[in-house]
Amino acid sequence: MSARTPIEDADVCVIGAGPAGALVADRLADVGREVVILEAGPRFDPADRLDRMERALRPAYDRPGVWGMGGDRDAHSNSGDRSYPLNHARVKGVGGSTLHWQGMVMRLHEDDFRSESARGVGIDWPIDYGDLRPYYVAAERELGVAGADDNPFGPPREEPFPMPAFPPSYSDSLFAGACEELGIAMHSVPNARNSESYDGRGACAGYGTCQPVCPSGAKYDASVHVERAEERGATVIDRAPVRRLEHDADRVTAARYTIPGGEIHTQEADAFVVACGGVETPRLLLLSESERYPDGLANSSGLVGKSFMEHLFAGVGGTIEEPTRQNHVGFLTSESHQFYDEADADLAPFKLEFFNYAGPSPVEEALTGDQWGDALLDQLRGSYGTHVGVGALVEQLPSEDSYVDLDPDVTDDRGLPVPDVHWSVDDRALRTLERANEVQREILGELGAEITWTVGPENTGPAFHHMGTTRMGGDPEGSVVTPDLRTHDLSNCWIAGSSVFPTGGAVNPTLTIAALALKTAENIDDAL
Fold it and tell me: Where does the record place a coiled coil (predicted)?
């Protein structure tokens, strides 16, 4: 391992140690397959998480700084209408971006799988909710989800969540009164964090720094399944970014990767799984071009990198004249899907989120202000703890105007072209942002809040959910992978992750990523 040399006689090579790659590797190792995981970033020591939390509390750092993102290794470009801050919410390393994610895990709604048929826009998935339903159950068990069956607008369920839901926060109770007056239903948020001891990990300790770091390990991250895969015989080679996939006419033969110091190795295997996320997955396929595949690997459809999708953020916040206990809970405990299935060709689905941390923490106020001593105490007493806010996620349709490509002029620390994110937002999403802002202002108005900020059509940003760049479908001319997530062009190469989503819906994608990963592992085992 110190040499990071290839593994002989590998059955499966998994590229990427985020949630998709980790779950695929764990399932295949469990059935006796010889699995090797190649991960571009390092393995993080859990003992360092308290130090990372302290760093996260200091205003000089943001999420990239906490997890070592940035520099030539992580360089990228933006050629689109809107700048895309790619490094703000991704982590290269064992565990991937689940190391600093928010931890919300919802199932897609039934109509999300049939957008064209039910809403008149987008495209239909080649699978439906019923196909994925048993894998959603398994994914909730694997990640450890705390939740309650109290969402009257969600898709049908089979059984209770593995753990009880977290109770509503104090600020949720304030929102509840306003929403009741307005006829807006609130319900709990399914969270991939332990409300009680589960799967050998303790219950949430309430540090409140869930983004960007959970020191206790109560919030799920993919290192859980990477370590489990290792216990079952898998091999993990970290700091081993893959340069390209070698291939013949219809099979991948090897993954070429670089180790610290610059030495290049070649990992052979019977099957390959590309699980690098919605940006790095298409980048790797495009980097693997050849005389046989001059436009990139698995790209006979021309769709690799195309239809890059995001969830757009809408939000309204302000202050009220009573304590809200902001930041007391570091994650969301209540939401509303009431407006979700009103979606049609003109308006997208969206969900509301009731913030528990809509204002700065006292540490932030103290360290970023100019006051000291008694003056600082007076300032904190007057300004802290009265903030409220309501957010929303809005669906973005797949579009030829949003895509990931290679930058012909900028290279990374290995001399390879960096990803260029060309991001644009469709008119339907912009109209929906306006609608979400209307509902949010009504709620804050009912609370009697003074509105101090709005994020809407003009200044919207991404939720950092990279989706859609290697779409699944039944037609090889209109998709990159089959419904079983095997590439149409290559008989032994599968893609796992949100890049295969034909549409994105308006709920956080990780549970669907996990469900598809479990389904993919079954398909690979059957093929082998």
Answer: none
DSSP characters over 253-278: EEEEEE-TTS-EEEEE-SEEEE-SHH
What is the longest distance spanned by two Cα atoms in the chain? 73
* The pTM of the whole model exceeds 0.85: yes
What burial class does residue 14 get, using C-beta atoms within 10 Å of its C-beta: 0-12 exposed, 13-18 middle, 19+ buried? buried
Angle at alpha carbon of residue 236, lines to 232 and 239, rounded to 5°: 165
Question: 258 is written with which tokens?
Answer: 């670089």
Verify whether residue 88 is a known catalytic residue. no
d(CA 40, CA 37): 10
Among the listed residues 330, 332, 329, the one whose alpha carbon sits nearest the alpha carbon of residue 186: 332
Q: Among residues 109, 422, 465, 466, which one is catalytic?
A: 465
Helix or strand or coil: residue 478? coil
Residue 133 to residue 37: CA distance in whole angstroms: 28
Show the domains of the chain with their CATH numbers.
9-145+212-310+398-423+465-528 (3.50.50.60), 152-189+312-395+425-461 (3.30.410)
Per-residue pLDDT of the chain (528 residues; tens, 9 = 90+): 457 899 999 999 999 999 999 999 999 999 999 999 999 999 999 999 999 988 888 877 777 889 999 999 999 999 988 899 999 989 999 999 999 999 999 999 999 999 999 999 999 999 999 999 999 999 999 999 999 999 999 999 999 999 999 999 999 999 999 999 999 999 999 999 999 999 999 999 998 889 899 999 999 999 999 999 999 999 999 999 999 999 999 999 999 999 999 999 999 999 999 999 999 999 999 999 999 999 999 999 999 999 999 999 999 999 999 888 877 888 999 999 999 999 999 999 999 999 998 777 677 777 777 888 888 887 777 667 889 999 999 999 999 999 999 999 999 999 999 999 999 999 999 999 999 999 999 999 999 999 999 999 999 999 999 999 999 999 999 999 999 999 999 999 999 999 999 999 999 999 999 999 999 999 999 999
